[in-house]
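Section: Multi-chain targets

For targets with more than one molecule, the full set of components is provided together so that the structure can be written out for the assembly as a whole rather than chain by chain. Components appear in the order listed by the source. The example entry contains four components.
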Amino acid sequence: MVTPTSHPPIEGVPQVRSFNRLVTERIGALSDEYLARGRPLGASRLLWEVGVAGADVRDLRVRLGLDSGYLSRLLRNLEAEGLIEVVVSPEDRRVRLARLTSKGRMERVVLDRRSDELAESLLAPLSEGQRGRLVAAMAEVERLLTASAAELREVDPADPDVAHCLHEFFGELGRRAARPVTEEDVPTAEDMRAPHGVFVVAYLKGAPIGCAGLKQHDGFAEVKRMWVDAGARGLGLGRRLLDHVEGLARARGIEVLRLDTNEHLTEAIGMYRSAGYEQIPPYSDEPFATHWFEKRLGERGAGDDREGGAAN
Amino acid sequence: MVTPTSHPPIEGVPQVRSFNRLVTERIGALSDEYLARGRPLGASRLLWEVGVAGADVRDLRVRLGLDSGYLSRLLRNLEAEGLIEVVVSPEDRRVRLARLTSKGRMERVVLDRRSDELAESLLAPLSEGQRGRLVAAMAEVERLLTASAAELREVDPADPDVAHCLHEFFGELGRRAARPVTEEDVPTAEDMRAPHGVFVVAYLKGAPIGCAGLKQHDGFAEVKRMWVDAGARGLGLGRRLLDHVEGLARARGIEVLRLDTNEHLTEAIGMYRSAGYEQIPPYSDEPFATHWFEKRLGERGAGDDREGGAAN
DNA sequence: ACCATTCGCTGATGTTAGTCAGAGGATCCA
DNA sequence: TGGATCCTCTGACTAACATCAGCGAATGGT
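Its structure, encoded as tokens over all components, is:
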């Protein structure tokens, strides 16, 4: 799935390797020590994932990425310890529901405490100032690794994930522009199906968190439905989507990209400008459009050195 | 071993926990995927540790923290794959020496490449600027986690680690002061044995990387032999050692601390001043002493909130 | 009413990781 | 020279972490 760019060497690889080594050793070893309470670590994780609200077994399987049989066994072990109980779901009697017993809830509290202690054991030896810097640096690493984990995929416009994205997109547009948007106002992405267009969805841990579409016209192509989930902003994902779509357009020999947007989407407008788009007169009559932009795609230049054009 | 401070809640615990979760999942899962080349991960790690120069089995056992029997088995597996060969050491025929065959060296190169690819796969989706920030933040996390992993232990002055520290200390002192120091000039730490003093050594991964001693006199105590290994500077270890020794002194009811130092140890002098030590007239005639300092220990105040006094 | 599918469970089986006791040879020290 | 110690290996064992095939009950679509 991941195709590391091969030719231009990426700066910082040794530092990343060194980080990986240190962090997996230190954090990994400590986690075991703190969290395996006489129980296999997998069971502790499972206990945690069941959570106070309970969860159905199907979800747990997906979340933890476990084999159905294996999970079943783990559940029975926890059940034997009296920490959880598994009952059939009232809605679908094939589905089973795991939830914590009161003993299980107590154990979960203990686990929570142990997690805190693990974190404290890392912070405790440091001075006040060092702690602050460590926490800040960890937050930065976390943000950027999250950004890096986002994956772009070309998706068929009929995919439910596309509908989700468009729904969110128009929902926000309506809110920002203070114009109510009903279900029927939300268009499909059928006009961006295969030969005449592409629809790209950004995923994080399997959930769609952004999108962008490309629609070909005569002599130019149009970038449409640029959206990034509110919870995933600030990760540079919008720019990445745009770069990706531009790469796809370039690969198809397209030389001019256009797009329209709404005056209330200020961050988007800023991003388009900084990506080299210039404002042009209206070329469409989309309901929400207030600003129109255009960019000539030259040869791949500086700043385009990622995502490998049409790859991924 | 680690005793998390219990009462004053430590800031940043949730952030650290979140970081731990993300990093173990993301890096851990990726590591497996990239490095387990059809071989158990442990074997790959071992192959790596044997290294181009070869290593004797005893060292490997310590470095990887493996059981003697288990390691033996792993070695035989690698041997069966034709990746290493194990021969008896010429110096001590009990000891066995593992070294890579040419096939093993090639495999190690592949492993190296895979590690690079792992790192690249994290960096590749990011923009130039994000990469720079990620690498910088990783370096910061690594430095601070290393600092946090350093462990202070009270050690008997006869321990060979103490000799090592003093040797390094006087070596550097001689170099800085441009005055040759012979083996005989290096004193022992016998005057800091149990009831009349303490000697504290800082360890990182089992290796001594710093020290500080406390010697009790009438009416005051003296801090002596403050040293931090050149490779471990900038981690705040000097200050931590000093704080720790002050805590020990306080616990013994000592109210006045003195120390002498040499004009060429400028960082140390800076640290003493910032820790509240004030310059006083000479009180000793140590060969290298050029500056003398004193600090009155009051009640534990701000900035002393770590390491829990005499604990650890 | 039927069939395909979904869901969870069970049994069989395999690999990885790790522990423990002790054998056997080599070395060190008194 | 004789014990104590060191180093490695073997055999026996265990726990954790899976994978796979198939069963039986429930469900949804036609």
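Residues 13-35 of chain B form the longest helix (23 residues).
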